[in-house]
Amino acid sequence: MATLTDHIKTAWQDLKESVRNEDWAATKRGFRRMEGLQQVNEESAKKIEEIKPIFDSPPSFTESRPIADFNGVRRGTIRPKELRIGADRIPISLNNQIVIATGNWILKQGATIPVLRNFVHRDNSGFSQSAQIKRLDNGSFVEVGDSQPTLISKARKLLDVCGFRNSKIEVHLEDGTVL
Question: pTM, whole model, 2 decimals?
């Protein structure tokens, strides 16, 4: 398995070759590849700095550290820590809680949540077989098996459908990002 250093060396060689051959398209691809590898290199160095206190002798960033194929690297989702609807703050720790907390907040406001095909149902039927569902405080079920951006979009949809169009919704992540 190739190391990050191997990928960087190969990318530099390819970039130099494309410049030498005056191949503009390959040069642009090479710059994008180098930019991505540089970002991975910087993120790796930051992670090593973060875990240094855990070890007596911190690991070094060496050529022997294998990585997955650059195109196959998948970034992990940064977990949410708080949902804010208007002035209300709701602690959450999982992405699926974005929709659950929003639905329960709507119920606490005295509003009802209508049935929404493949999204909200009064019982656990009416969903696709692959749906991941969770129960709300009123006994209804919501589908929560989506990506973080989709779940935020679904929470916004719930607010809009239930008459809270003017209510601001924010998801605060562990890294300080606000969505």
Answer: 0.58
